[in-house]
Amino acid sequence: MRTFSRTVMVGAEFVGEDLVRFYGILEDILYAMEVRMDVRVSDGVIQDVEGRMKRYTTPVCPRAEEVLKEAVGLSLREEGWISRIYRDMGRRGCQHLAEILIECGRCLDVARMARFLQKTAPSEGSLQDAQERLARWLREHPEARGRCAARR
Amino acid sequence: MSLVFQRTKTVNVEPRGDRELDVQWRITDTLLEASIWMRVRLPDLEISEIHVEIPRGPHSACIESSALADRVVGIRIGPGLRKIVGGLLGGEKGCEELAQGVLECCNAVILHFTVPQLRAVETGTERERREKLQALLRSNPRLVGSCIAFAQDSPLMESVELQGGDL
After folding, report:
1. Helix segments in B5-158, DSSP class H
2. What pTM value is reported for the model?
3. Residue A13 sits in which domain range?
């Protein structure tokens, strides 16, 4: 029998040419919460963020919703942004809300890639064709390059 | 406005007798699909087996990175894990998603042990709940200062008598 189970979901919609809105949800045995976050695409700066706790373990937990708002102004392009969210929004607020925020933030560039693929060839081409087009896109968007083997 | 990108991640922990835990992790998104199956030996929390499948990825290197997973066999879930896993699976020759997936598997193993304690705090009289919370913090001192509920100035901490040396 399963003793622990967690699901995290992220959705991204481009509400403007330079603004992406993320919806993040975490659901597990103990916790249920969600985050909505607006990010400016050109520089990765968080424009707005809102968290909502639906199920939690202590009466103090919902106070973390206010702490989460301090993420506004932080850039997802900034070195060490993940550590900063864990420290400033997680330890001072809620680790689970911070985890949702980070998962949304980690989706910034893959959401841009998905938009690029949809715009250029929504449902055509092989996996290899999509990979070749994304490799070209990455060469033109150095800010999206990561430190992994695929996105160097 | 329709969604351009969707991601779903799931992680499940299931005991296998008294000596092992099986962890299943899966990520499915618009560009990537990957899964991790991991076996953890108890009580030392050592990763004894791991199997990774990446059938679909935005870059060919993502799919090839599944071969890296064996590097974490033998490591223990404990302090310094983030740095160890990042060093073995992340970096310029690694895969950030794979490293993140392994860390989420390990986090789920820890939660497997803390969930019963947190559940126990939900029931009983106020005094009983306070005592359970006190016991929880004593057995998990790393929780102190880990979030707003367990911050030193939290009203929950006011009711918890933390004796010198306990934490």
Report:
1. 60-64, 81-89, 96-121, 126-139, 155-158
2. 0.91
3. 7-106
